[in-house]
């Protein structure tokens, strides 16, 4: 067989696909190949529930396809949150469902709106369907409801709101989320991404699930990847009106959630103590890191208040984010540098144990003093 001549026709990518830059995951190795403590991907440092581990080890027949509708899992989610299971759809992580939401309601010539600093997947979702991503102005890096509403145009089809926000970690309260929804045209879909909702302190509720239960243009997505510690199994879910759920069911993959993933998620839901411990340990260790960063304010370091399992540290003095990144790698830690998201002056640090946060603070102090 000979090679095809270079002047012959060949398959051509759509221009909006060719323009996509593939998602870049957080690093876990140093430049010398050393394995680092990975605090770059917002994974749960405590792993997952022992019940979930047991469920993963107990797969009766992996030769059979899983339940295509994740029936038992949807029923458990519905019982936990007071939602009709018919209004729940499960996905291969919340990413599949976010993609479905954008794919169903936006296309070439349309706009997908989000805050300037948002989950890095959002612009990819828009690009995959030929839509244009539009970034609303930020309020000192945080999402701003007024700016989001001001950025809405007749071409806006979907608004993506991660709450808590990634990578900044800030959170919009119920009043602000309701203000955002009330200001949107009824034919614009508001997607509220609750990836980090389980890390919120008890009593904190942005009202997203309540809106999804009553409003025809609100979809809420959640994931088992963060506080539940099942990132490797890729399990997410979404809820909204029957029409919105129907749209996602049309687009999601067949047999999209593995049998192991469904069993693990069910088991994880039966162990709320694990999630509560993860939340409480995260709140304590996050507060420790935030205090240490505040103490380095004279060196130009600061962080935004976070409600997630990470802290965004801004470097506005002699010590640059890139230099701090190298210092942390030398000290054995991988964190996330985000120049591709317009944050060359920042590092996103996943919250680990209290000891790890103390060690990171000590490394940053030493680097700041030497800069």
From TrEMBL:
PROSITE patterns: AA_TRANSFER_CLASS_2. Residues 35-362 form the Aminotransferase class I/classII large domain. Keywords: Amino-acid biosynthesis, Aminotransferase, Histidine biosynthesis, Pyridoxal phosphate, Transferase. GO terms for molecular function: transaminase activity. It catalyses: L-histidinol phosphate + 2-oxoglutarate = 3-(imidazol-4-yl)-2-oxopropyl phosphate + L-glutamate. Pathway: Amino-acid biosynthesis; L-histidine biosynthesis; L-histidine from 5-phospho-alpha-D-ribose 1-diphosphate: step 7/9. Its EC number is 2.6.1.9. The modification N6-(pyridoxal phosphate)lysine is found at residue 226. InterPro entries: Aminotrans_II_pyridoxalP_BS (IPR001917), Aminotransferase_I/II_large (IPR004839), HisP_aminotrans (IPR005861), HistidinolP_aminotransfase (IPR050106), PyrdxlP-dep_Trfase (IPR015424), PyrdxlP-dep_Trfase_major (IPR015421), PyrdxlP-dep_Trfase_small (IPR015422). Pfam families: Aminotran_1_2. PANTHER family: HISTIDINOL-PHOSPHATE AMINOTRANSFERASE, HISTIDINOL-PHOSPHATE AMINOTRANSFERASE 2. Homodimer. HAMAP family: HisC_aminotrans_2. Belongs to the class-II pyridoxal-phosphate-dependent aminotransferase family. Histidinol-phosphate aminotransferase subfamily. This is Histidinol-phosphate aminotransferase. It comes from Qipengyuania psychrotolerans.
């Amino acid at each position: 067989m000979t090679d095809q001549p270079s002047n012959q026709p060949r398959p051509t990518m759509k221009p909006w696909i060719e323009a996509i830059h593939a998602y870049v995951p957080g690093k876990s190795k140093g430049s010398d190949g050393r394995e680092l403590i990975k605090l770059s991907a917002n994974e749960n440092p405590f792993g997952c529930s022992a019940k979930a581990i047991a469920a993963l080890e107990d797969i009766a027949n992996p030769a059979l396809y899983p339940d295509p509708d994740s029936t038992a899992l949807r029923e458990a989610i519905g019982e936990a949150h007071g939602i009709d299971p018919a209004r729940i759809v499960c996905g291969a992580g919340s990413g599949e469902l976010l993609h479905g939401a954008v794919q169903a309601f936006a296309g070439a010539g349309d706009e997908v709106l989000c805050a300037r600093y948002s989950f890095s997947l959002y612009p990819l979702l828009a690009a995959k369907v030929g839509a244009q991503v539009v970034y609303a102005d930020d309020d000192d890096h945080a999402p701003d409801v007024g700016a989001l509403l001001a950025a809405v145009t007749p071409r806006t089809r979907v608004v993506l709101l991660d709450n808590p926000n990634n990578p900044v970690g800030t959170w919009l309260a119920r009043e602000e989320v309701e203000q955002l929804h009330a200001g949107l045209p009824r034919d614009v879909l508001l997607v509220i991404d609750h990836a980090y909702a389980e890390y919120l302190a008890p009593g904190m509720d942005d009202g997203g699930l309540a809106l999804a239960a009553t409003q025809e243009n609100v979809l809420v997505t959640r994931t088992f990847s963060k506080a539940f510690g099942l990132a490797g199994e890729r399990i997410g879910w979404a809820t909204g009106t029957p029409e919105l759920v129907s749209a996602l069911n049309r687009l999601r993959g067949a047999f999209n959630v593995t049998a192991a993933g469904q069993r693990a998620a069910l088991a994880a839901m039966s162990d709320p103590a694990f999630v509560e411990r993860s939340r409480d340990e995260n709140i304590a260790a996050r507060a420790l890191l935030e205090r240490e960063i505040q103490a380095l304010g004279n060196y130009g370091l600061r962080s935004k208040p976070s409600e997630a399992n990470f802290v965004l540290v801004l470097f506005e003095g002699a010590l640059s984010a890139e230099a701090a990144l190298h210092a942390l790698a030398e000290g054995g830690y991988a964190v996330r540098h985000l120049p591709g998201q317009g944050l060359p002056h920042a590092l996103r640090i996943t919250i680990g144990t209290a000891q790890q946060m103390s060690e990171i603070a000590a490394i940053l102090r030493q680097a700041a003093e030497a800069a």
